[in-house]
Amino acid sequence: MSQITEFSEPLEYVLRWEKEKPDAVYLTQPHADGSIAEYTWGEVCDQARRVAAYLQSLGLPEGSNIALTGKNSAHWIITDLAIWMSGHVTVPLYPTLGADACQYVLEHSEAKLLFVGRFDGVTDSWQELEQVLPADLPLVLLPMAPEVQSSMAKSWSEILDTYQPLQDPVLRGREALATIIYTSGTTGRPKGVMHNFAGLTAPAGCSVNLWQPSDDDRMLSYLPLAHVAERVAVEIPSLLFGFQIFFNDSLETFAADLKRARPTRFFSVPRLWTKFYQAVNAKIPPAKQQILFAIPFLSRTVKRKILTELGLDSVKVGLTGAAPLSSEIISWYRKLGLELLEVFGMTENCAASHAARSGEVRPGYVGTPLDGVQCRIDETGEVLVKSPGQMMGYYKMPEETQANMTKDGFFHTGDLGELDEKGRLKITGRTKDLFKTSKGKYVAPVPIENLLSAHPGIEVICATGPGQPQPFALAVLSPGMLNPASTDDRTRFEREFIEHLDEINQQLEDHERLNYVVIVKEPWTIESGLLTPTMKLKRNVIEDRYLRFADQWREQKQKVIWEG
Q1: Which of 147, 343, 519, 541 could form a disulfide with 355 if both were Cys (CB 3.0 to 4.6 A apart)?
Q2: 98 with 123: CB under 8 angstroms?
Q3: What pLDDT, on a 0 to 100 scale, did the predictor assign at position 404?
Q4: Whole-structure pTM value
Q5: Domain limits of the chain?
């Protein structure tokens, strides 16, 4: 087993950057009015120290749980540092979390205080959340926070004006509890995953030799910082290696924010990599790309221009995770000169698990174990992983913790998988995602969805069909794919998609072949509750909404059905 690099707790590195490069810009924050705010390491630490002094003034027991909600921002990270500097534990909450789930997390974690950040575009979500907050829960309003009615609220600026910087930040050591990350969950109540500082830094320690980060790197933060992936892919490495983070203001400004950052390291989910691919295909049809890429004196210029327009021309390390990405799209990026490396991990192992190595990419496989990680497949086909990033356990759930661990310390991932001759892992489905047709056959939906999603018109797709004679799929089209008023557009799409579906069905076993695909009208979003914050399908919610129509859809005896 390979050895990993062991890092000290992140605060030690932060204090180093504060001393060595106080005037270097660390965080770049765009605002809705078009202005840009930059925060140096010195300014970040000054604000974090003042907020830490405020937290210490409250006289809370050391290691108290402090909740933090809001979209990604410079002050989200500054708050995380302040909580740690004051000797406490960060409990991040998704800004899209429903009122009931938020109330549960606050009560279950026994949070002593709640920091409230920005809620752009989801004001109603904040209004619902505000209604369930305990009346005696102290609040701190970050810059860009929504208006709050509570008399327990204190503004960020008020704290900065009142408190002097904490002179001696609390350093609790690698083994101290750093955060409780409540799983977004595709089913049931969220569970609080406890990670110490050693766990939070483990992904960096497992991959430092692989990706060689440095203080010259740049990253764009836009996936939820409340999720483990963004935390350990962006925030923690920036603290350890001292590089700059840029933030995304909104969906509308994403392209501009990405071009401003020109990241050298870029981590994303398949849905966004697919959107980039589809956007380029809409401007330069694949047939035309094929011609341009074949002309020696034009090929390099065209490919470079595409990456520049996407804001990805400086990317040295491109990572994709959270769900499978089709081999067709991975190959397309490779032709442009950007090799996407798939990564695999879970909240419970702090995403320190598997990654594809440059030059050893096998489409459909998430790579080999990172340094220090062990993996095996048990007799049921489930993937078991032992990782340096292994959680301390589920908060206040010792029985649940024990049930998910083997006697020799491996975690039950809940993923089904197989290993190739080089030890590369292929995820073939989820143990809980398997469904049985009325013919008694089990179907794993994920590999089918991976094949279907290669079609450029599909934004997101869900293969389903429990209790039906054959599986079917529900699909959402990419925005702008069709002109709603054009019958020709719909006819063309149907013809092309049926051809795509027939090709895929030929690759599947008889019991896996899709009977039909339903094109649904409603967008599937995080806000609608149909996707998790990292854009995974909430299968139980989707099936609750659509399965009742399956019998009448099947009776139509068509391969493509338009909802409504």
Answers
A1: 343
A2: no
A3: 93
A4: 0.83
A5: 10-237, 251-430, 435-562
